[in-house]
């Protein structure tokens, strides 16, 4: 698991064009030949519409999933990685190492810092399960790699655009899973609104 592009510290302080150049050099020089790449991204629009998407370079395939508005963008990014792994499980039965790219540093750090005995949210558990499945059943290595966002990298751009389009125009299936942290936030928000309304009513009646 690499949440940094190795050997390039503070890459985000460099101009976009240099970032792109360094990332491309890194891929050709450091990763070797026997690997395949999938780019992932999540999107949440201002109005709340949310989607996850991945783009597989091997199959030249982009897949977007519209999610419930209740998902945070962090969940969406994690779900995108999960969907990429599900695709790998079914269609990448080969000996290549799969590298899954994400620009979500905090998710990658969260996964890297997981310890035995931790009880992470369900999407993270699914992710761990899929990595183990690929390792044990397909003898594949799965690596996660952070890349800076919006540097004009073809595969990442495709995932980014697809996530945005799916959020805006996609249709959600009836099945919806919501993680504990996101659900908690919504309940909290609703409770805050109810409290606010109650306080407003109280102040109103006091004012009379
Ligand atoms: Zn593929």
UniProtKB/TrEMBL annotation:
Its EC number is 3.1.26.4. Belongs to the RNase H family. This is ribonuclease H. CDD domains: Rnase_HI_RT_non_LTR. Pfam families: RNase_H (PF00075). It catalyses: Endonucleolytic cleavage to 5'-phosphomonoester. PROSITE patterns: RNASE_H_1. Residues 32-168 form the RNase H type-1 domain. The keyword DNA repair does not apply. InterPro entries: RNase_H (IPR050092), RNaseH-like_sf (IPR012337), RNaseH_domain (IPR002156), RNaseH_sf (IPR036397). Keywords: Endonuclease, Hydrolase, Metal-binding, Nuclease. It comes from Nesidiocoris tenuis. PANTHER family: RIBONUCLEASE H1.
């Amino acid at each position: 698991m690499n949440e940094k592009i190795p050997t390039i510290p503070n890459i985000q302080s460099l101009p976009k064009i240099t970032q792109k150049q360094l990332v491309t050099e890194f891929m050709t020089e450091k990763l070797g030949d026997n690997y395949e790449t999938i780019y992932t991204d999540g999107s949440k629009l201002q109005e709340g519409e949310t989607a996850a998407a991945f783009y597989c370079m091997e199959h030249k395939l982009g897949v977007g999933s519209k999610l419930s508005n209740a998902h945070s963008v962090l969940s969406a990014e994690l779900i995108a990685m999960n969907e990429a792994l599900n695709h790998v499980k079914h269609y990448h039965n080969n000996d290549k190492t799969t590298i899954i790219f994400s620009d979500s540093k905090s998710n990658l750090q969260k996964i890297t810092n997981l310890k035995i005995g931790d009880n992470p949210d369900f999407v993270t558990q699914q992710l761990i399960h899929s990595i183990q499945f690929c390792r044990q059943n397909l003898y594949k290595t799965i690596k996660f790699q952070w890349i800076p966002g919006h540097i004009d990298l073809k595969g990442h751009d495709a995932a980014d655009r697809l996530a945005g389009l799916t959020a805006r125009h996609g249709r959600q299936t009836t099945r919806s899973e919501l993680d504990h942290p996101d659900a908690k936030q919504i309940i909290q928000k609703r409770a805050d609104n109810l409290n606010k309304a109650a306080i407003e009513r109280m102040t109103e009646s006091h004012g009379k």
